[in-house]
Automatic annotation (TrEMBL):
This is Exodeoxyribonuclease 7 large subunit. NCBIfam families: xseA (TIGR00237). GO terms for cellular component: cytoplasm; exodeoxyribonuclease VII complex. One of its GO terms (biological process) is DNA catabolic process.
Length: 447
């Protein structure tokens, strides 16, 4: 192709094609290095440089991914970044779009996972152990409607137990909105259970992925929502080697979505085999019982006597019982006659009329004695009251006042005994034999 025929690209077109080539060629990758030149503009994004001893790389951590980074980024930190290589087209800058950040070594996400796991374990959030209904009347699956997990669950349920009633509550299972969406779904199910009691089990699940992809299932609020759920919850997140806080908080956990479905419902093939075995045992048991009953019937047939003989025997027995009954009735009548005669004599001896007359005489005598005692008691009390009245009159201060004496009190109600206890101009009260006086001190005298 000549230079005249070669396509002529603008700068923006060139940068756009270069970005597409880089993103398709590299995909996701991990890069380790040292942080430098961290910048945090008002947008909430974080821009920095990742460098090692011989090169450096511009990086951008956007706000929607930055919320999953628990520890703040600092210059000089040695970190491991997961992201995709791209170009910022307006400036033509080659950069790494960061999706996850781990501290070099054990990893920041793993450290955060262990901290949350220890905290929630101490709070008792992992203490759920309610038995799961088997099989559930109606299973609610909280997962992505387009993920591989729901396909695996439905395939296992259909193969093992076609009678399963399954309801899918679609939620995102990755990203910032995943945990809040699952929490809302659980809350809605627990509220609606009062009106739909057939719902009795919840499966929270998703397929495998990286630690960052599964991080929504390590949300502490989601773990608490699972712990407080009134419905039984089973969780199956990722592969067999993956673990999450949601699984620890659930009533049961399974290594994979398929294993969870297998745990929830019986296998129809096993049940068919079991039914076949039970049917064979039932047939053998019925055959053996029928043979035994046949033998007993033959034995009873041989022991069976003619009805006339049995009727004669019963007639003789009935005659014997009739004779015994007649003798017993005669003896009982004689005994009752003796008891009636004894009771008649006893009643005559204890005539109620005589007892009533004696009681009346005793009552009249006691009444007379009571009146006499009452009169004597009143007379004694009158005499004693007169004596006490005379004694009280003798010592009463009112009697002294009646002879011309007076009691002087100050304004506080205290009795004045000495002239020096008063002051000229002071107002006093005098209590006489009849009435009171209000006095004013003019002068004090000494005797």
């Amino acid at each position: 192709m000549s230079q005249v025929d070669a396509p002529i690209l603008s700068v923006s077109e060139l940068n756009h094609q270069a970005r597409q080539l880089l993103e398709r060629g590299f995909g996701d990758c991990w890069v380790e290095g040292e942080l430098s030149g961290i910048s945090r503009p008002a947008s909430g994004h974080v821009y920095f440089t990742l460098k090692d001893a011989r090169a450096q790389l511009r990086c951008a951590l956007f706000r929607n991914r930055g919320r999953f980074v628990s520890a703040p980024l600092k210059d000089g930190d040695q970190v491991r970044l997961r992201g995709r290589v791209s170009i910022f087209e307006p400036r033509g800058d080659y950069q790494l779009i960061v999706e996850a950040v781990q501290a070099a070594g054990a990893g920041e996400l793993l450290a955060a996972f262990e901290r949350l796991k220890q905290q929630l374990g101490q709070e008792g959030v992992f203490a759920n152990a309610r038995p799961l209904p088997f099989p559930p009347r109606r299973l609610i699956v909280i997962t992505s409607p387009s993920g591989a997990a729901i396909r695996d669950v439905l395939a296992v349920l259909t193969a093992r137990w076609p009678l399963s009633q399954v309801e899918v509550m679609p939620v995102p299972v990755q990203g910032a909105e995943a945990a809040p969406a699952m929490i809302r779904a659980l809350a809605l199910l627990n509220r609606e259970t009062r009106f739909d009691p057939d719902r009795d089990a919840v499966l929270i699940t998703r397929g495998g992925g990286s630690l960052e992809d599964l991080w929504a299932f390590n949300d502490e609020h989601l773990a608490r929502a699972i712990f407080h759920s009134r419905l039984s919850v089973i969780a199956a997140v990722g592969h067999e080697t993956d673990s999450s806080l949601a699984e620890f908080a659930a009533d049961a956990r399974a290594p994979t979505p398929s294993a969870a479905a297998e745990r929830l419902v019986p296998d129809q093939q096993e049940l068919r085999a079991r039914l076949t075995q039970l049917r064979s045992r039932l047939v053998r048991s019925q055959r053996g019982r029928l043979e035994g009953d046949t033998q007993r019937l033959d034995h009873l047939r041989m022991r069976l006597r003619h009805p006339g003989e049995e009727l004669a025997r019963q007639r003789r027995h009935l005659g014997q019982l009739e004779s015994r009954l007649e003798r017993a009735i005669q003896g009982r009548l004689a005994l009752q006659r003796q008891r009636a005669a004894y009771a008649r004599q006893h009643l005559l001896h204890f005539d109620p009329a005589r007892q009533v007359a004696a009681a009346r005489r005793q009552s009249s005598l006691l009444n007379q004695r009571l009146h006499a005692a009452w009169e004597r008691r009143i007379q004694r009390e009158r005499t004693r009251l007169g004596y006490l009245a005379r004694a009280l009159q003798a010592v009463s201060p009112l009697a002294v006042l009646g002879r011309g004496y007076a009691i002087i009190e100050n304004r506080q109600g205290q009795v004045v005994k000495r002239a020096r206890d008063t002051q000229p101009g002071e107002t006093l009260r005098a209590r006489l034999g009849e009435g009171r006086l209000l006095l004013e001190v003019k002068r004090r005298y000494r005797e």
